[in-house]
Specification:
The structure holds two protein chains of two kinds. By secondary structure, chain A is of the alpha+beta class. Helix content of chain A is 54%, strand content 20%. In chain A, the strands form three sheets. In chain A, strands 1-2-5-4-3 form a five-stranded antiparallel sheet. In chain A, strands 7-9-10-12-11 form a five-stranded mixed sheet, covered by helices on one side. The chains are: A alpha+beta, B alpha/beta.
């Protein structure tokens, strides 16, 4: 999980807890406050009723009935005056919650019962007020505060996310610019990322230090490759020149001549292998970093000319069906080697009067180059392992050194090109090169 | 002809010397180190300098800089390098080297390059080489008989001129293959592509005169006898 998401999740969880606690507190408080408020009102009403109360008034109210009852129209409140025999001495009165049925309507009332003595008569006064209004009010207040809290949480959450994202931007910039987009330490940018968060400055600094070490190591390795190549190539030159001199010796027997010549051929393959290994090392060291626009149709035309002899002796037809408008970006030398290696294999593992077709199409928005041949094909198992550096995939006796496809793989990954091989035994092989969109 | 070989591998220098010396009657000087090479260069002019870049006491390109600093020198220089870095090639040629030959090279290739450069640089007599009545013009890349130009393909011309520049030497088929097809030679190495071209070449030559001077040597190589 991303740090910003984690922070957002944590924030929202704590806020939900706060909201729940606050809602509960508010709920309890409003209940208490409104109850208290209602009681005050009932006491007030009682005082108002009692003020200027006369015997006439009481008689008038009670008249012939046993008590006096009065409701207002909406039955929100009522007042009942009942004469009683015995005086119950509760001067302050008491409050009870009661459910009363008034004219067939059940309602909950807060009832204030007050006993008083007037002109030597005892009375009980009950004043009731409906609680439904109150509960409704409570509910509204509670709902309102809940909503306000909810909205404020949403707003702060959005602000939090925006802020953490802003805060973390230098971090993602560092990762993106200095790690993800770099496939070669040579291209590493030593410009510090702008940020005032010290942790990121530290990260940036540490990364740069690490990269410096890696680069230094790579330099040593490159130097090593260069030295080894010198160490190997010079003795090979010495050997081959010596053999050439021996070949010109007039006293040479036919069998010796043959052996010397065979040695020259062996040396030549040794030389080829070293050169191929050096090429792979150079590609992997990023020594071919000059990229240009390349026209695949032209590259294939060049290769067709170079391989004319190979094609004609086996009567293989090469159909160059690359679009003339197609351009790709890459290192021209490497792209030529890549295409040439694929064509070379397509010829090598083809049959007499076979064909090779190169074409392009669009797949998922990217360009795909196809190298199709009508050759001997391979089994699935062979397809799986053909890109191993030292594996030669034909069972035939033909001479080869197995590095051609390793070079193909190396060049492709240097250009972020994906390779897909599909093959049917005795039918042919198709190699698909998937070019990254940025390369088109 | 005076040749200086600057090469720290003595064995290799001796092989090169043997190959060049026997036929050409060259005066060959060796230098194993940068310091002694610079001393030799200052002593006098050479027709040809073969320069290895990697020397025990420094970079061979420094010698080239030193040489170019001396006025009125026409020494032709071929840089020999095992480093194979394209930079070396570019720097070498920019500093005024006449050619660049990556190791490992074949002696036949070296000889062909030397001849091409000598003819271009010193305007040696002319660019024509006579071969039993035929005439090779290196400048115009033509081959003719009695003013009639033979219609040779590019590869036939490459093979013929390579053999002529290595006249009287056995040139192994491998070396020819490498010269004609360059980096693609391994694809051609197994088969008899050279033989096919030689066969066609002989047919074309025979239309004008005898071509027995283009010899097949024990099935392993070819030689032009002059």
């Amino acid at each position: 999980m991303k740090l910003s998401n984690k922070i957002a999740l944590y924030n929202s969880l704590t806020k939900i807890v706060i909201i729940l606690v606050l809602s509960l507190v508010i709920y309890l408080f409003t209940d208490d406050i409104s109850n208290h408020h209602l009681q005050e009102r009932l006491v007030d009403k009682r005082k108002k009723f009692m003020l200027g109360l006369t015997q006439d008034h009481i008689d008038d109210l009670i008249q012939s009935q046993a008590n006096f009852t009065d409701y207002n129209i909406l039955k929100e409140e009522f007042i009942i005056l009942t004469p009683i025999k015995e005086m119950i001495n509760i001067s302050r009165g008491n409050f009870t919650k009661q459910t009363r049925e008034i004219e067939g309507e059940m309602q909950e009332y807060l009832v204030y019962t007050y006993y008083f003595r007037f002109n030597e008569h005892n009375y009980r006064l009950e004043i009731g007020e409906t609680m439904s209004v109150l509960t409704q009010l409570e509910k509204s207040i509670w709902l309102f505060t809940f909503l306000v809290l909810l909205i404020s949480i949403a707003v702060t959450l959005i602000i939090d996310i925006a802020f953490t994202n802003r805060l973390l931007r230098p971090f993602y910039n560092i990762v993106d610019k200095k790690l993800n987009k770099i496939h070669d330490p040579l291209l590493f940018s030593y410009i510090p990322e702008k940020t005032n968060t010290e942790d990121f400055v530290l990260l940036d600094k540490s990364l740069m230090q690490l990269m410096e070490k890696v680069s230094r190591q790579l330099d040593v390795e490159k130097q090593f490759t260069s030295n080894v190549s010198h160490e190997l190539l010079t003795p090979i030159t010495t050997l081959s020149t010596r053999f050439e001199n021996i070949l010109n010796d007039k006293n040479l027997s036919a069998s010796t001549f043959q052996k010397i010549n065979a040695s020259l051929v062996t040396l030549s393959f040794l030389k080829r292998t070293i050169k191929d290994l050096l090429l792979i090392a150079k590609i992997e060291n990023g020594q071919y970093d000059k990229f240009e626009k390349i026209s695949p149709v032209n590259v294939i035309d060049e290769i067709t000319q170079e391989m004319e002899d190979l094609l004609t002796t086996r009567n293989i037809r090469l159909h160059n069906m690359f679009s003339k408008e197609l351009y790709i970006t890459g290192n021209p030398t490497l792209m030529h080697i890549l295409f040439a290696n694929l064509i070379k294999n397509a010829i090598k593992y083809n049959k007499q009067h076979g064909m090779i077709r190169v074409s392009n199409s669009v797949k998922n928005g990217g360009i795909v180059l196809f190298f199709e041949d009508s050759g001997t094909g391979m089994t699935e198992e062979v397809v799986k392992r053909i890109f191993n550096r030292y594996e030669r995939f034909s069972l035939s006796q033909e001479e080869g050194h197995g590095l051609g496809l390793a070079i193909v793989k190396s060049i492709a990954s240097f250009h972020s090109i994906s390779i897909h091989v599909s093959s049917v035994l005795d039918k042919g092989t198709t190699i698909e090169l998937g070019l990254p969109i940025s390369q088109v | 002809m005076k040749i200086l070989i600057i090469e720290d591998q003595k064995d290799l220098a001796l092989e090169i010397a043997e190959f060049l010396f026997t036929e050409e009657g060259c005066m060959i000087d060796h230098a194993w180190k940068k310091s002694s090479a610079i001393d030799k260069i200052k002593e006098g002019e050479y027709d040809f300098i073969l320069l290895d870049i990697t020397l025990p006491d420094g970079n061979g390109l420094d010698i080239l800089k030193e040489l170019k600093g001396i006025k009125n020198r026409k020494d032709a220089v071929i840089v020999l390098s095992a480093r194979g870095a394209t930079d070396d090639r570019i720097v070498g040629l920019e500093l005024g080297a006449d050619d660049y030959l990556p190791k490992p090279f074949s002696l036949a290739e070296l000889r062909a390059r030397i001849h091409a450069i000598l003819r271009r640089k010193h305007q040696l007599s002319d660019n024509n080489i006579m071969v039993h009545g035929f005439l090779l013009n290196i400048q115009q890349r033509t081959f003719s008989y009695a003013d009639q130009e033979l219609n040779l393909t590019k590869k036939e011309y490459e093979i013929l001129s390579y053999l002529i520049l290595n006249k009287n030497k056995v040139v192994a088929r491998m070396s020819l293959t490498e010269h004609v097809w360059g980096d693609l030679y391994d694809a051609y190495a197994d088969s008899n592509f050279v033989d096919v071209h030689i066969k066609n070449l002989r047919q074309k030559l025979r239309k004008y005169a005898k071509a027995d001077w283009l010899e097949t040597v024990r099935g392993m190589g070819y030689r032009i006898k002059i």
